[in-house]
Amino acid sequence: MPSLNSILSWSSAIALLVISSVFGFLGMPTEMGLSILAGALGLAFANIENIAEFSGAGFSAKMKHQIQAVIEKETEPEDIALTENDETIQDPEKAVIKALNNPKYTWRTLSGISKEASTPEKEAWKILVSLIQKGLVRTGNKNKTGEMIWSLTQQGRAYASKIA
Description:
The protein is mostly helical. The protein folds into 2 domains: about 5-60, no CATH class; about 65-164, Arc Repressor Mutant, subunit A, CATH 1.10.10.10. The protein contains 8 helices and 5 strands; from the N terminus they run ααββαααβααββα. It has helices at about 5-25, 30-45, 65-75, 85, 90-100, 110-115, 120-135, 155-164; strands at about 55, 60, 110, 135-140, 150. The strands form 2 sheets. It has a 3-stranded antiparallel beta sheet. A two-stranded antiparallel sheet has the order 1-2. A hairpin with a 2-residue loop joins strand 1 (about 55) and strand 2. Helix 5 (about 90-100) packs across helix 6 (about 110-115). The chain is elongated and about 70 Å long.
């Protein structure tokens, strides 16, 4: 028996290709556009786990890991023990962590982090890469202006609460 996901994919593909073509040949552009939209939305939802971001016709969806950062920010931090990496964190890295831990934001741009940490963007970039390797920071998809965005991991939030 085919899965529900498989049925949704096939019916969406048919709506997208066949039904919209029929409406096109019959000279019904509004119906053709609606069937294309319905087919595209069906295919998007059938493959939602593979989509980073989807928006159109007043609808927008983002990846689960971006929402996970919001959940982690709003949940009380677990008591995570310091690791070797945490003990070697220098003052410029601490400034970047503090900027990322600003309660106004869950995700930050490089320019915002750089400004708040009083660090040149080139240096802030290197620090962010280093903090990713230490498991304290993660990147997300680009924001609406195309800039990469950054957030603390759960371990990064725990560390930030210890240096606050």
